[in-house]
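One example given next:
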Amino acid sequence: MEPLVSPVGSHNEWDPLEEIIVGRLDGATIPFRHPVVSCNIPRWAARFQGLAAGFRFPRMLIEPAQRELDQFITLLGSLGVTVRRPEAVDHRRRFSTPGWKSRGFGNTCPRDSLLVIGDEIIETPMAWPCRYFETHSYRPILKDYFRRGARWTAAPRPQLSDALFEARFSIPRADEPMRYILTEFEPVFDAADFVRAGRDIFVTRSNVTNRSGIEWMRRHLGPEYRVHEIESRCRAPMHIDTTFLPLAPGKVLVNPEYVDVDRLPDILKSWDVLIAPEPDPLKGPLLKLTSMCGRWLNMNVLVIDGQRVIAERHHTTMLRALESWGFEPIPCDLLHYAPFGGSFHCATLDVRRRGTLESYFS
């Protein structure tokens, strides 16, 4: 028999993109009540979520997001990228473990539940109870990749008992020491707290990724990789891709509100640190009230090949900045995806990029 050639292979955020998984809005449900959910989303969205938890997202939010998502998928196809989609699931269905009950959330953001490192695809142990079975909607794709030669790993499934969460947690004020809702009871992490630059992986500790989760990844990857922690000044950190995002060899985009560039890991001293411009203001109150994300979604871009970068059409200041840094921005609309968890980087998982494993630091 001829050896299998894995359809999964992605070592960084910028090699030429060949295949990608794009999330799906079908069946999306407002996240079930839990302190780890409410502490990770903007205060105004948390109030809405608390009142409507467990119900399907209304059509007035779904329909504009679906139109933009369809256009984004068409754009990817025109760029020669193969697009895979998860199964449609009714996320409002109840489920339970021996310790707790919940409803689901959605499969809008494959970047959170799945992490690609080389030819391996890893199911992550997420901290939100409503996302406990989220990867099941991707199982047909994962089984196909495995049959064709990919490595498929699932991190230890967490218990998500009360012992994982700090009792009476409150978000720290700017003048207080940093604290997190997660204890070190067990490893948990979202894939979106990690970004890749060949043999170097960057991660933020957050309210969905604890030190035990980072250590699990470090041990799992072994000495072939180096895992570096990026300190975030965000008071409610969740996901690195609006904080720190490598765009090409030697170029990294950083959030000036969340990152102290003088405290970046020493290996980045030889790289150009690109300071993200202020996001352009949103028009109208609806997106401000319903967005599950912070205001820095202008950073949530998708690199096609180290030169071309898909970025939000609304954020014209970021489009101009990308041009000034030597990139070719491709404007696209995905502004109405924010109530479902993000923008271009969040809504996708790059499964295969044409390139090899390299070290980009001396």
Q: What stands out?
A: The two ends are 40 Å apart (CA to CA). Residues 59-78 form the longest helix (20 residues). The mean pLDDT is 94. The chain is about 20% helix and 20% strand.
